[in-house]
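Changelog entry

Holo records now carry the ligand SMILES as an explicit input line rather than a separate metadata file. Below, a converted record for flavin-adenine dinucleotide, shown in the new format.
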Amino acid sequence: MIEINDKSKCCGCTACMSICPLRCISMTSDDEGFLYPSVDKNKCVQCGACDKVCPIQNVVEETSFEQKAYIVRNKNREIKKASAAGGFFYNLGSYVIKSGGVVCGVVLDEAFHAVHISTDLEEDLIRFAGSKYMQSIVGNKTFAHIKTNLDKGKQVLFSGTPCQVEGLLSFLKEDYSNLITVDIVCHSVPSPMIFDKYLEYVSKKYHDTIIDVHFRDKKYSYNFPTMKLVGRKKGEFYHCGMEADPFLRAFFANICDRPSCYNCHFRKQYRRSDFTIWDCNTVAKDAPEFNDGLGATKILIHTEKGCNIIKEIGNSYDLIEMQTEQIINRNSAMFKSNMKSNHRAEFFKDATVLDGYSLMQKWFPITWKHILTHKIRIFLQVIGLQDFMRLLKHKIKTK
Ligand SMILES: Cc1cc2nc3c(=O)[nH]c(=O)nc-3n(C[C@H](O)[C@H](O)[C@H](O)COP(=O)(O)OP(=O)(O)OC[C@H]3O[C@@H](n4cnc5c(N)ncnc54)[C@H](O)[C@@H]3O)c2cc1C
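Structure line, unchanged by the conversion:
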């Protein structure tokens, strides 16, 4: 029976809940806002299915194989604008829906929580575009629903964090030829509760109700992404990057992530997914012809199925083939877990007692230094030095 005594050993993928033949596992939130399995001991017959399916308890050995690497960008400007990088996921989704399949990925719901939904409607695809920087709620029926569709012979595209994809594959057991999986290079997943606190903070600070959020907006450029907030009264009133925005600062300070992210088992080059996608933040150097300020996506293809699909959908994007080693180029988020902030426990202790405004003011106040840095970044963007600074930063980081 699954028992979570060490939270760093549960990624919340829902495989255990989904496999339970007696439906006696539910996902419940802890006081940090992360979901964990909870077993109804009166119903459990100790069959052990939950332990056997856990992707952390049963990590699949990494073995090397031939891979293909590309930098791609969607041909449609509006799709690129809405996406985190080059909008590659949209191309895949569109291909699957046109062939009568189902797409399962992450959208923001009305409460601004990241949730997995499934759809067979092309008009829903745009909701998947863009990274939602918090752990998504997979839901009670998502994995079972995917299995039902696969068994019916429908093509299914599933996208999520590497741990969610591993959880799904472990749950399915069988290798379905009609399943396509996409994972991301994942920095980590912050707590949805901390995002709620942040929304409380901005609503109070700017005296408005937030009606739309974009975590990686490209108003200034792809190379200077910002959090975008839209208020009921003010409209689109806020664009602020990781140099000053309290939530993005918390995210990159590694202070509010799921405990398992600090010891992630799924950061690796050779994965079980078909595609791994991530930001091409070196677009100015690696693909200058794609450097239009709207972004490009790096992709690594792990399977023959993936290679065939990329050929089939070839007319919907621009593409440059790369050497695998070159595209990976010591990408730290692909291989290495982040160091947990020493202040994490203290931060979450405050989060349970303080309202959002007081929490953010205490931990991530916006000082004149932040405002100045923000203005300098805008200035660098205007005079065209942002690309240079970004590449310099990347060079220093990967040295
Ligand atoms: C939490 C998180 C951390 C990331 N960390 C990094 C990083 O460190 N380095 C890097 O290069 N790239 C990172 N990315 C990936 C990157 O931001 C882009 O998603 C990727 O470059 C593909 O962009 P795209 O424009 O092709 O597709 P998009 O249209 O932007 O891709 C959207 C896809 O991401 C999925 N998605 C969105 N939010 C979530 C979520 N919360 N959980 C699971 N899946 C989600 C959607 O289902 C959809 O399939 C991260 C993404 C997320 C969500």
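Spot-checked after migration. The chain has a mean pLDDT of 94. The pocket of flavin-adenine dinucleotide is lined by residues 83-90, 105-106, 114, 128-134, 136, 159-161, 184-187, 189, 277-279, 297, 333 (CB under 6 Å).
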